[in-house]
Write a structure and sequence with these properties.
single chain, 232 residues, alpha+beta, Alpha-Beta Plaits, four-stranded antiparallel sheet
Length: 232
């Protein structure tokens, strides 16, 4: 029977330490995503970070026995498995990206998943200081630059709206209402909702600050307009 002291050898302690550090760092980034209610949150980022760290440890320590036994026949390439992790993580990031007409959501979360995979690999190879510094930079970017982007978007002269119409209706009255608000239509897409409704995705260039209450009331006063939503 294998003694418990054989379990906690120096190599196992080193690998366990790296896995725990990967858990903590990826968990911090995942917590920020979870707080802001994004598709991939706390658990997803932890799973990616820890798994990437495990793959790195496999690449470094998993084949040492074969190297000693078949030193002349086996060629060791510790970068092979990490390269597959980096390229393969893209499918998971792609699953968080949602395209809805003119809006694309989830790009930042997809990038954070890819970054967490990189953190796991870096921690797995033992670059702790670099991993901690990268985590701090990522968190600062996600928290403070997000607020900065929102402030910029508030001052932007553009606004996007989703307008749901009841069936195939004429759009002349809708455009007539829009003209009263001194707006220029920069982009217009017409799509089908589930059922017979039409969905118009429209991006407006505002000459002045748009009174959204009056804007909503004017559009909803049209008989065939069912719903108006602003796209953030």
């Amino acid at each position: 029977m294998v003694g418990i002291e054989n379990w906690f050898d120096p190599e196992f302690i080193t690998m366990s330490t790296r896995i725990i550090i990967a858990l903590l760092l990826s968990g911090l980034i995942g917590f920020e995503r979870e707080v802001n209610q994004h598709a991939a949150g706390f658990r997803t980022h932890i799973l990616v970070g820890v798994s990437a760290c495990l793959m790195m440890l496999l690449s470094i320590y998993g084949f040492t026995t074969y190297l000693y036994e078949y030193e002349d026949a086996v060629r060791f390439d510790p970068a092979r498995i990490p390269s597959y992790v980096i390229s393969g993580i893209g499918f998971l990031g792609a699953g968080t990206i949602i395209v809805n007409g003119m809006t694309v959501k989830g790009l930042t979360t997809a990038a954070s998943i890819w970054a967490v995979a990189g953190l796991g690999l870096v921690v797995g190879v033992g670059m702790y200081k670099e991993a901690v510094l990268t985590t701090i930079i990522i968190l600062l970017s996600l928290i403070f630059l997000n607020k900065f982007e929102k402030k910029l978007s508030k001052n932007s002269s553009f606004a996007s709206f989703q307008i749901v119409l009841d069936g195939d209706m004429q759009l002349r009255e809708l455009f007539f209402k829009l003209e009263k608000f001194h707006t220029v239509i920069r982009r217009l897409e017409i799509d089908r909702d589930q059922g017979d409704d039409q969905v118009i995705l429209i991006e407006l260039e505002k000459e002045k600050e748009l009174d959204k209450i009056d804007f909503y009331q004017a559009l909803l006063s049209i008989d065939f307009v069912k719903r108006v939503n602003e796209i953030q």
